[in-house]
Write a structure and sequence with these properties.
This protein is of the alpha+beta class. It has two domains: 4-44, Arc Repressor Mutant, subunit A (Orthogonal Bundle), CATH 1.10.10; 64-137, Lrp/AsnC effector binding domain/regulation of amino acid metabolism (RAM) domain (Alpha-Beta Plaits), CATH 3.30.70. It contains five helices and four strands; from the N terminus they run H-H-H-E-H-E-E-H-E. The chain has helices at residues 4-15, 21-28, 32-44, 77-88, 114-125, and strands at residues 64-72, 93-98, 105-111, 130-137. Helix 2 crosses helix 3 (32-44). The longest helix is centred in the N-terminal third of the chain and has 13 residues, at 32-44.
Amino acid sequence: MLSESDKKILRILQQEGRITNHELAARCGMSPSACLERLRRLRERGYILGYAALLNPEKLGQPLLIFIEVTLDRTTGDVFREFAEAVRGRPEIVECHMVAGGFDYLLKLRMPDMTSYRTFLTHLAEMPGVRETRSYPVIEEVKSGVALPL
C-alpha cells in the first residue's frame, strides 16, 4: 500500500517528470536521500514504469486524432493474437485496447491528414479477422493527459 508521501511523489512526478531529486524532496518535506530511497522502491515495486517526453503532435505533422472501433469476424484466441500482432506493426496506432461491449477493440491513431487516414483504412480492412470498423475523427481535444488520479 502506498503512503501519502509516496502518493505525493507520484503526483509531482506525473506533472514534472524532469524535476531534480533535491527539488522533489524539498516539495515533499523530506531529505534528498529519503526521497531517493522512496523513488527506488516505487520503481522496484512497479509503480513507476518509466519516464517519457510528451510531444506536440501538431508540430510533428500528426495533428489528426482518430478513434476506431474494430469488430472481429471471430473471437477466438488465434484471431486475437493475429490481430494484436498486426496492430503492433502499425506505428500510427498509438493505443489499442480490447474492450467488452458492442465491438472488440478500440484503436487510437495519430495521422497527418485525412488522405493518410483513408490509405490506412485499406490496411486496417486487410488485418486478420477484421469484419467491421467505425471511425470517429476528433474535432476538438477537450481533455487529454496521461496522469492518473491519486
